[in-house]
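for ur thesis appendix - EB domain-containing protein. copy paste whatever u need, i formatted it the way the template wanted (i think)
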Amino acid sequence: MKPANMRMCVLLVHVVLVAITLANGDKIDIPIPCRNTSDCRNMSLPGDAFCQKGYCMCPRLDNDAEACSSINTSMHENKTSGSLLYRRCKHEQDCLFEGGICNYTISQCTCLKNYVPSSNLKSCVQKIDSFEVSCTDKNQCLAFLANTTCENSTCICISGYYHIDNACWKMAGYAEPCTKNQECSHIEGNICTDNKTCGCAAETVLNTNGTKCLTAAKKIQDECTESVQCTFEFSACVNNVCQCREDFHYEREMTRCFPNKAIGNECVDNYECYQAEDYKNDPPVKSMTCDSNICTCADNYILNVEDKCISKSAGSSLMMSLSILVCVISLTKILLLHDCRRRRQIIRRNGGKVEKPVEEASSEGTTEHCTVNRFASLCGVQSPAHIAIASIYFVDVMPKVPKDK
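the 3d part is after this line
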């Protein structure tokens, strides 16, 4: 075989090996043979590669040269495939794109001062320094603030982050892990607690829709806007104040609401037994008590017909009033009958048949006063107040009995 043909075969073998190596993605450092510089320029090698002693040579940054290899080929493809930045350059003309310049120190195209590479690495875009300045590329936003992007010509925080204190902070949900208060503060009043989770500050609670923390109400009648603020059990926010729920009552000593238990209901302690009047008037001694685990009337209280516990004195007054009423009705009937008899006698006398009526007056005074005394004696009324009431009724209210002429 002629020497020229042998050299051609060797060159082809090396080219095939390089092609196979590149196809497999291997980065084995294999020198690339050549016949002349044009062979090197026709390959995927830097534009300044040249042929020397049968191999392609690639310039180094120290102005020396070394044998080109598959690694140089791969690097060059990565830097030049669709991009203009970071490609090798020797002159400004090699970097003729917006904001581009040749960095002679590293022999690569880079960006001018106050410019940053575009996202596609095909140009340089001008830096911006605030959210107020319009943008065209996300790298303009990232140049002054991390976790940002450009949308609708405006820099914004990327999804899952929010802007506060001139930074984009990761958005941590309620009760989620956190490291800084800013990660939690997208919820008003939320902080990063001592256990490194987001939560409401002390003496506050999260509102119903999870947008802010509200002041917690600790006792009955505290102001509120939502029921979650009423932190004691069985309570609710009614008319902007914390109250016990329907069919529950509040015990001040226990600072909580208890279900209402009526006469005859099972109980454990006195505060469970409930009668509305006790909580309207707030007496020092309640009318109901828990006796043998059953709600009953307390000492000095009795059960009335409405199943309400009332004081015995009130019950006695009521019974006395009823007795007086019965006596009044009875005596009124007697007086009316007596009055009718007197009227009949008067009519007979006027008709010529005069019959003297029985003398009703006595040493006690008029007939009316005599009747009052008879009433008090009959009904067992001893209280001066009750006798006075009867006197007003019989003397002033009852019709007068006409005297005999």
